[in-house]
Amino acid sequence: MKKTINYRLTVAEKQVLKIKKVRQKQLQDYAPDEIASLLGASAQRTKELNALAEFQSIPSLGINFAEELISQGYYRLEQLKGKSAVELFDAFEQHTGAWADPCVEDSYRLLVHYIENRDETKRWWDFTAERKAYRKQYGFPTDRPQNAWHESGKYPKMVSYLQDR
Q1: What is the pLDDT of residues 120-163, one digit of tens each?
Q2: How far does CA 93 lie from the centroid of its chain?
Q3: Are residues 31 and 106 both part of a single domain?
Q4: Chain-centroid distance, C-alpha 129
Q5: Which DSSP string do the residues of 99-161 spell out, in sequence order?
Q6: What is the CA radius of gyration of the chain?
Q7: FRET partner for 6 with CA separation of 20 to 30 A, picked from 49, 70, 131, 142?
Q8: CA 32 from chain center: how many Å?
Q9: What is the tally of structural domains in the chain?
């Protein structure tokens, strides 16, 4: 597991932790029901916090990638089991309405590799050659969005995601 998980806590949540003398980095040691009790968090918020921790436990995947998975309705690695990196990446582009930077596809390849192998030695950039070979052979779907993520103006989170790198 990563040393520090970014939970993007609200000001109120941070205040609760301060009063209870619990540091943010300690949250990853708590069970979901303990986090709910500690923060007075709703079931949905607790589910999100747990998902943020689980997704960021994968080496070289950060908060923005984790939040994107949540925005697509994923809260557990188990939900992604059996899906291909290509399927997940193509769905991501459809979800955002723009084509993404190639390193995002590499991140999906890392995600799937981690789920299948629990290999903590790989990083997203280890999948660049695999992605390039695949796209050279198969290309992209015909219904791929036409605008780039940076042109669309609709998806500013992608800028932050790439800055995580």
Answers
A1: 999 999 999 999 999 999 999 999 999 988 876 655 555 555 55
A2: 14
A3: no
A4: 21
A5: B--HHHHHHHHHHHHHHHH---S--GGGGHHHHHHHHHHH---TT--SSBHHHHSS-THHHHH
A6: 17
A7: 131
A8: 19
A9: 2
